[in-house]
Amino acid sequence: MATNNKHAHPWSPLQAPKELAQKLNLDPKTLSLASSDFGHIENKTPLAVFEPSSESDIIELIKYSNSLPNPFTIAPRGQGHSTHGQGLTNDGVVLNMNRLGDFRNGSEIVVCDEYVDVGAEQLWIDVLRATLKHGLTPLSWTDYMYLSVGGTLSNAGINGTTFRFGPQISNVLQLEVITGKGDLLTCSPDNNSELFYAVLGGLGQFGIITRARIALGPAPTRVKWLRLLYTDFSEFTKDQENLISFHEKNETRGADHVAGYLLGNLPPPRDVSFYPEQDVPRINSLISQHGIVYSIELVKFYDNNSQSHIEEELANLIKGLKFIPTFAFEKDVSYEEFQNRLRADIEFLRANGLLDVPHPWLDLFVPKSRISDFKEGVLKDIILKQNIPVASLIFYPMNHNKWDNRMSAVTPDEDVFYALGFFRGSFTNEEMEASEAQNEQILQFCKDNGIQAKVYLASFKTQEEWVEHYGSKWELIKDRKDEFDPKRILSPGQKIFN
Ligand SMILES: Cc1cc2nc3c(=O)[nH]c(=O)nc-3n(C[C@H](O)[C@H](O)[C@H](O)COP(=O)(O)OP(=O)(O)OC[C@H]3O[C@@H](n4cnc5c(N)ncnc54)[C@H](O)[C@@H]3O)c2cc1C
């Protein structure tokens, strides 16, 4: 683990005014918990952890830092599920957003007909459960539900629903934000719109999201959940691209969730846990035979009203798809069970001591036009040849028109692009370093071959890399920083401006 605990900052929490000092936690155990994240790759001990009991406390903290000749940095922390220290600081204060939830007094999640107002520290699983009680649901999701609303909105929030409803940042109606200058502002597309677009996908650079208003729709009750296996890459991608185009063409027979996975001869193929136990040996033998097997995850939601025609709709949906007919698998589960499907895997890893290890993950957006080159150069020539364990490989397309370019998030500039995720856990330092080196090699391959890929959940080390990442958006990002956080206080762990 890379440790950087050199406290170079002249400010000490002991100098803070009394009202703030009471909320600056210096307990070594608390500092230690705030010095690392899900990635277990970077380690930085903050000077203190700030535990606010209201938005006003956060405002006071930010204003106090701004008033110093050398302001200290402030790193808001949701669930700490970043992988490369994005929420850490060693020359400032970690802001424990979770403490806000303790003081909301019933206002943490308020469900209305068309939207839900939530505290940014809330978990998506709790938002789901609260809205389901009213027969409603957010429309756009992440696969894992134990992430904070503020954390995913600072990135984008993607999964198999993104092709249809856009990332979670495209489903926000209004935000409450405390800027890096300490101003608490309500913002939306019509009100303080520059701040609204800045913080969505803004990597915590421009303000601290304290509340969000999220669009809702009617909640289904049940889910037809399919996995369809392919051995032919171009059939797999063609079918995925076709499936995500139905709603674009106003065809009602579209899917509600489309995702893809790769099953490789790389230990351990986690995705196999979906399949009936008796089928696992023949799936494994298919993988051995072909090196990689491709799996489309296709989902159709339904409820009592649509129950009578769901089978017919499903049959129409998969008609013409080129999966191997004897390798089609189906589950029928409740909507909540489907949304919370990753919980069991994470708990399994936790229970077996496999979760608190380094996670050198890489998430990439790759334009559709270069996806075959990526497959040849990366999947075949790097991933399969080097045989470094990858626990899970996701691979699915989304529609560019569901993203809003005014937001700070960046994507490839093509109508359809793929989200690729290489998820790994490392058990030794050597394994971690080899995985990180492989991630670098993948990015270098894209550069050398002119593939305009964009890293999602990026963890660059230098500003030059960020400038390249943002491309034509860099000037806008810089202007937004100058406007909303001129003293470069917020989220230093992203290493964009600090
Ligand atoms: C097991 C797992 C599964 C995941 N699955 C998905 C997935 O399916 N789809 C997806 O899109 N992502 C996924 N992610 C990535 C995840 O969305 C990001 O890591 C996200 O940042 C996690 O939220 P968090 O609350 O843990 O944020 P943190 O790690 O605590 O913070 C992330 C960044 O945002 C800043 N920040 C946090 N809260 C706020 C706030 N309120 N206002 C402003 N800035 C803030 C922090 O300073 C930091 O820079 C997954 C991660 C894990 C570990």
Automatic annotation (TrEMBL):
Protein name: cytokinin dehydrogenase
Residues in FAD-binding PCMH-type domain copies: 42-219
Catalyzed reactions per annotation: N(6)-dimethylallyladenine + A + H2O = 3-methyl-2-butenal + adenine + AH2
Cofactor: FAD
Domain of life: Eukaryota
Family statement drawn from the similarity comment of this UniProt entry: Belongs to the oxygen-dependent FAD-linked oxidoreductase family.
Species whose genome carries this gene: Lupinus luteus (European yellow lupine)
Gene Ontology molecular function: cytokinin dehydrogenase activity; FAD binding
EC top class, as a word: oxidoreductase
Record bears the keyword Flavoprotein: yes
Gene Ontology process terms (BP): cytokinin metabolic process
EC numbers: 1.5.99.12
Signal peptide feature range: none
